[in-house]
Task: structure prediction
Amino acid sequence: MNEHRRTVVNTAGPSYSSHGAHSRQALHLARYRVLRIVVSALVTLLVAAGYFMADINGVMPGPLTILPAGKTTSSISGSVRAAQSIADSVDLNKPIDKNATESIINAFAATPGLGGDFSLAIADSDGKIVDSRNADTPREPASTMKTLTALASSSTLDMGSSFHTDALLDPVPAGAGQKQQQTTLTLKSDGDMLLGAGASDPNHINGRAGLATLADQTVAQLKSKNISQVHLKYDDTIFGSVRSPAAIASNNVGNTNFTGISSMAVDGGRQWKGVEHDPDLYSAYPEMSTTPAHDAAVVFGSLLAQRGIGVDGDVAGGKAAKNAKTIATVTSATLAEVMAFTLRHSDNTLIEEFGRLLALKTGAGNSPEAATQAVKSRLDKLGVDTANLHMADCSGLSEGSQLEVKTLVEVQSHNLKSGPGAAAGEGLSVPGFVGTAKNRLQDSSAAGLLRVKTGSLDQVTSMAGNVSRKNGGVLAFAVIVNKPQDYLAARKAVDAFISALAGL
Result:
């Protein structure tokens, strides 16, 4: 099994522009539900209330907006609302009843078909483990590994920055006069693998920067220079020659879970072949291109041709001239928004890219090995225990990764604090509501109280996250099951376990 085939649902609710009694009732219910999620986010992440309120109401773009994808505001500009209190202060020091944790753990361990190859841990807000089983035994984590990369990169990179995709024009040959000129145009990006083929879309993360918009800007500049034909290149050199972890292919049958990181891609390289889908929220996982940067350049060339600019010859890779000038630019969603998209879809390619960006930022190198080294180094600086951590990659998709559950718990304890790395917690899935844990809520009374990252491979089911407790206080947890005798039973036991934690 692979979690990347799990259903991801639309977080959008009814529009604020609805009228009538039925609409007001729907709006009331939507507000109530989203309020619970936002309260949980404040409790578990301690981020600014003003940002969330602005995001919810569509004043700022972000993953928590309840404006439906098909009905958008006329503009995303506007003043941000002042921060306001929507939740009481949280008692982070409220103790956790050890007898109650023993009962929950014993119930989990007694699950028929679970097997004995499991580890779990429950920790308080400071990361101190209150109760555990086999916490010192390294196990394969599957996609819960992404939480390590998310924290390391989010606490180092500027998560408010964006990717830029540019069209660069080589100098026009001297003495061309008024004749129609031809020169070289280079498409270059610093890592936007969520480009859109259409116009830039301010209401989605995937496609925020659109190649059609870039083509419109480019054509206007070319025509102003009396240029009607270009030779098109694309620069895909930023991530060096090795784009994929060595062992990732074994869990990427059909090329549906990963493609090598590249400087640019349309929709992450997913090849939908005409299938309609929401750019931010989809449940199908089609085959992915192995040449995503080239594909993006071909799309761009086609868009230029549609607008009257001839593209001479085949589109090929290459760098722009040193004195080339940028004539058009489109900008992606913020890295924080891209991280939210990454975690909720459990996107292996994007999290590998975040690991590589971290490696480049810290000077660790430009390879998959440098990325894992950079993640571990950053976690060490944050005080996370990495003594028995082995990362075969940054995503958990490759065979061979091992870690202790206490490492996952310590990462989640960081997500309970404000400060650098907040984006690593903001993008976690909310069981019963959004992300890969959409269908993992067993107890409706725990709705909105859990923020988690799931992990699923053929012989692994895992989960790590943080919990707002019903009676006050918070906790962090992690659970990993390797080689269960009955996979479905083990998965359901994990779901029951996390719901029970909310009652502590």
